[in-house]
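#random but structural
TW: two for the price of one
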Amino acid sequence: FGQMDQAVMSHALIITPAKATLILLHVVETAGAKTMGTEIQDSETLSDLERLERYAQLLRQKGRKVEVKLGYGSPIRELVELVKTIQADLLILGGHGHRTVKDLLFGATADEVRHRIGIPVLIVRNAPL
């Protein structure tokens, strides 16, 4: 979740066919999520799921079929696993410019994921359309 959320969803609406199912993915990275996985029901996990559902509802209001999926633990490992499990055709990620150390670390996630999956990856870096 972050400042790129709107841009990612805008791009998804524009470049995917209207009949495509959009699947919103998010990885909960808390210590509890890393150890308990799907059993975790902490406030952050519930908040993340609510936010994902709000995004899904916005896309449904635009006539799109939408599903949500949560992963737990390592973002790289979980995103790769989720993409493979759902047999996605395309992954759209929000990217960061490499202006600070923090951006370098977060950008590394998108770069690593793209190297581990065998489908096209669109990394969105600009403002919402």
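TW: number two ↓
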Amino acid sequence: LTHIHQQLYVVIPALVKNLSDSDKDVRRMTAFALGELGPDGKPAVPALIQSLKDEDVSVRGWTTEALKKIDPLAAAQAGMK
């Protein structure tokens, strides 16, 4: 992940795009990957908040966890504990 952190300006937009992929597994794993970036993933917060409305419960679950890792305040404002 160290190399990825150095390339966030490329990685985050690509991951955000994948949050709207037609495959729920891609969306789920994308949310997980964004969460692994921790606070460095903050530019993805608006897209993650939108993903809280995903039709798939597992995508919503991983999105919730990602938001908590990236920006606990944004998670709290979105109504998460």
